Amino acid sequence: MTNIVRNNGALSALLGSKTSLHTNRRWALFASYACLIVFVIFFLCPPFYMLVTSLKTNAEIANLATNPWLIEQGITTEHYTHLLTETAFLTYFKNTVIVATFVVAITMVISVLAAYALSRLSFWGSGVIATGVFLVYLVPDSLLFIPLFKIVGGLGLLNSYWVLVLVYPTLTVPFCTWIMIGYFASIPKELDEAALIDGANHMQMLLKVFIPVALPGLIAATIFAFTVSWASFLYPLAFIYSDNQMVLTVGTVTTLIKGDVFHWGGLMAGALLAAAPPVILYAFLMDYYISGLTSGATKG
Amino acid sequence: MTVSGVSRDFPKPHPSIRGGAFYLWFRRRSTIAVMMCFPLLALITCLVAYPFAYSIYLSMLNKAETAFVGFGNFLFLFKRETFWLVVQQSILFALVAVIFKALIGFIAAHAVNTIPSKGQRKWRGMMLVPWVIPPALSTLGWWWLFEPTYSAFNWLLEEFAVPAVPWLSDVFWARFSVILVNVWVGAPFFLIMYLAALKSIPEELYEAASIDGASAWQKLVHVTLPMMRNIIAITILFSIIVTFANFDIVRVLTQGGPRNSTHLFSTYAFRVGIESGDIPLGAAVSLFMFPALAILAFVILRNVRQRTVSI
Amino acid sequence: MADVSLTKLHKSFDRTEAVCGIDLEIADNEFVVLVGPSGCGKSTTLRMIAGLEEITKGDIRIGGELVNDVPPKDRDIAMVFQNYALYPHMTVFQNMSFGLRLRKYPKKEIQRRVEDAAEVLGISELLQRRPKQLSGGQRQRVAMGRAIVRNPRVFLFDEPLSNLDAKLRQQMRIEIKRVHQHLNTTTVYVTHDQVEAMTLADRVVVMNNGLIEQVGTPGELYHQPRTHFVAGFIGSPAMNFLDCKLERNSGNLEVKLGDMLTLQVPADRGSRYEPYVGRGLVFGIRPEHVHEKRAGEDAFAEVMVNFIEPLGMETMVYFTINGVELCGRVSPEADPRPGQTISLTIDIGKMHLIESETNLVL
């Protein structure tokens, strides 16, 4: 008798806990989705609003009576055509592409070589250098732009986008070196030993074994270098003032603001177009981007 | 020069000495290593270390850079009310922004981790958008959202019969706005880091905790947080540095106004050094960031080291 | 094809000495296995032969040529690693041909060699796959294939089977043996698994603490271990050891195990053990030489069974004598049960006596 009662109790407790597990889970899901929706609205509302504005006619933008979040009086691409035909936007774009390409190339060469040496050919001082690289990574651009302004001025490079090719690597190389060290270090030592026995020299080892094996890391580092050189704002703002040498970030923010009162459509179109390359790149290579970020930061 | 330094460490062995060829090979290996590091070292020396030293020198000159004034610029700053405003605002900005970024990142990471894994990529992808747009450009969008006459936020508030907010012209709201934008830009970074950390916690720990009778809250406190402690610490320290040294957002949104109330060290240094042409004073303003950065960097480094040791 | 000779080979890492001066001659075509517990210096020795570790002191000769300072690629050796070390971004064909391509062999020659090696190893259909798409055993074959195509003077194996499960390990053991019989290349093989060592080797080198304990054929190591360590290391379950005293009793030698047990030393060992009478020694007997008392045999001891391990064709029994747990092997028919008392006999002719001070088997 007592046995049965006890069993019953246990059974109902079991059932009870089962249902409560189920409801718990549903509550957790509900709360999670609610949070996510709020966050996504928060995170996406500025780009959405920029897009809406860039597609509105000037008249609608100026009309205070309409809902600013919607396009009610028809879509127009006039801001985009104006941007591409009547402004220096394409020049900025070209300059930015040139700068980003060179910076990525320089960064990858410097950091892959250094990361290989630091992760595999341990030599006197390599530990100090690795730590130094990490510390330099923590140096923000806003600490050094004033002396750099004087230095590049002294070199006669002021107001040329080549100065950006020179100084951007200080922002990209440390982080890229750091994440490449992480990726290289995760390659098992036996792999280089096998390559050594197979007869590879250091260059062959790097080009034919390390780089292909650490390709995801290489892609992550490339994306990082590209994003930084595309998005950097302070250095071009400080070092460049001519229209024909300007890059996108500064060009959009400073030059496009000039003009008539209702420049907002054009400005938003410019900002969106300027932001498009990194966003598109990210859409396709999100996983590399994230793995680079997390591995870089967790290892450093 | 470094290269020859290394070869000096390994004197050419006499050919008859046994092991000579090995040393030759070894020397080559070490020489190659230094050569491979040379571009990196040159970059850091010429464009980081030298400018830093130069910056210290610059900060001790007078405005025309003709005379040495010692700590004159620093003492001058101490007497300026604006400077203390900058100090106060930089600290406030960094701390408040980082706290909210960490909170939002943590909640969002948890939410993403809770939903079925099929949809996780999509949600995560949408929430990372602010992190990929160059901040100077997205801040333009915010600027337009805050625009006094056409503010889309104020339009919404008016729909709910709330009076319009002077986003960028009132001291409090201007500070609020720059922090809001910074949180918007930076929270996704925390989301990525925390999500990665959450995913790396072995499921067995939660199962064991369930069997031990832990509630959801207890699991968070006794499993999740301890397992993520290190990542949380590193991410926060790291973000404090980046936020403290931020330039783009304030520069685009308020240019330091109203009445210098939103200036950070970087924007103030830009205003003083580049725009007003007092390079030594600007250098001095920048250098005030250094002690804070150095302390943070030291703490991060120790954290990272501990981490690597514990692994 | 070449012989390998190690002379007074030393290796120290910082302050610890991993290999403390070993001498070893490996004949042409010989299959030599280095075996020992982890940290005994066997892998370090192999890596010094490969050229992956710098030699602290001593000489290594391959085919009579001093190779101390020759980089690995010029030693004409091939190595198979424990985790296979296959290049993950290359196909099996590319993996196997990498060494040949680096040495700029003609395309046709590379093709021929890789196909021949793949044929020998039965991986011809896998040549276009990547390592990720292969099972552990297949990866192991590819790793061997990579070594074979080079047709080197010496093969080096560094615990190649320890990542495989038991069944596959046995298969691959046979495979390795077959390949060696086919190619007859001098082979140095490192393992911690004595079964691998015994089954593969022409000669086994037992190492411990950076020194060679004994070199010999598998049979020699089993029947005539030279040291206490070898006696205990070779054979599974391990040899039983008991402290004992050697005494003379009316012309015969007797081994006294504690107060209770006395064993007669076989007459043919008398002269060998004579000088050690009265000394503290260790008595050793393998479990397989301790069995249930059969009709007409003298009982060695009546013991209580602690527990048993039935293995099917035999049953291991564990019991305690003088506070030491010992093991014996009885036939399943004897059907021992824990707690039961059974009579055991030992094969006294298979006993060993070890001098405690020197650890040498007498």
Task: Sum up the structure in keywords.
heterotrimer; A: 300 residues; mainly alpha; MetI-like fold; 14 helices; 79% helix; globular; disordered N terminus; B: 311 residues; 2 domains; 15 helices; 77% helix
List the helices and strands and how they pair.
The complex is a heterotrimer of chains A (300), B (311) and C (362).
Chain A: H1 2-54, H2 58-62, H3 78-86, H4 89-120, H5 126-137, H6 141-154, H7 162-167, H8 169-185, H9 189-198, H10 202-213, H11 215-231, H12 234-239, H13 248-255, H14 264-299
Chain B: H1 2-9, H2 20-58, H3 72-78, H4 81-114, H5 117-127, H6 129-132, H7 135-146, H8 152-159, H9 171-199, H10 203-211, H11 216-244, H12 248-253, H13 265-275, H14 279-287, H15 289-310
Helix pairs in contact in B: 1-2, 4-9, 4-11, 9-11, 11-15, 13-14
Chain C: E1 4-13, E2 16-26, E3 31-35, H1 42-50, E4 57-62, E5 65-66, E6 77-80, H2 92-102, H3 107-121, H4 136-149, E7 154-158, H5 166-183, E8 186-191, H6 194-200, E9 203-208, E10 211-216, H7 218-223, H8 228-233, E11 240-249, E12 252-257, E13 261-264, H9 270-273, E14 280-285, E15 290-292, E16 301-310, E17 315-321, E18 324-330, E19 341-346, E20 352-355
Parallel strand pairs in C: 3-8, 3-9, 6-7, 7-8
Antiparallel strand pairs in C: 1-2, 1-4, 4-5, 9-10, 11-12, 11-14, 12-13, 14-20, 15-19, 16-17, 16-19, 17-18
Helix pairs in contact in C: 2-3, 2-4, 3-4
Detailed description of the structure:
The complex is a heterotrimer of chains A (300), B (311) and C (362). Chain A is an all-alpha fold and 300 residues long. Chain A folds into 2 domains: 2-47; 87-299, Orthogonal Bundle (MetI-like fold), CATH 1.10.3720.10. Chain A has 14 helices and no strands. Chain B has 2 domains: 2-58, no CATH class; 77-310, MetI-like fold (Orthogonal Bundle), CATH 1.10.3720.10. Helices cover 77% and strands 0% of the residues of chain B. In chain B, helix 4 (81-114) packs parallel to helix 9 and helix 11 (216-244) packs across helix 15. The two termini of chain C are 38 Å apart. Chain C has helices at residues 42-50, 92-102, 107-121, 136-149, 166-183, 194-200, 218-223, 228-233, 270-273, and strands at 4-13, 16-26, 31-35, 57-62, 65-66, 77-80, 154-158, 186-191, 203-208, 211-216, 240-249, 252-257, 261-264, 280-285, 290-292, 301-310, 315-321, 324-330, 341-346, 352-355. Chain C is of the alpha+beta class. In chain C, helix 2 packs across helix 3 (107-121), helix 2 (92-102) runs parallel beside helix 4 (136-149) and helix 3 (107-121) crosses helix 4. Chains in contact: A-B, A-C, B-C. At the B-C interface, helix 2 of B face loops of C.
